[in-house]
Amino acid sequence: MxxxxxxxxxxxxxxFALLRKVADRHQAAVPAARDAYLxxxxxxxxxxxxxx
Length: 52
Hints:
Elements: H1 10-26, H2 30-48
């Protein structure tokens, strides 16, 4: 099961970006875990998008 979320506005995007910076600074494993996860997500998204 997958749950997809959509950002509700620019303020939410700014909050998410700040939260990401805080996590990166305070937990050394976060950047590698994020990149590993998002690499899978982005690869799947690219597979689902129609070619230009």
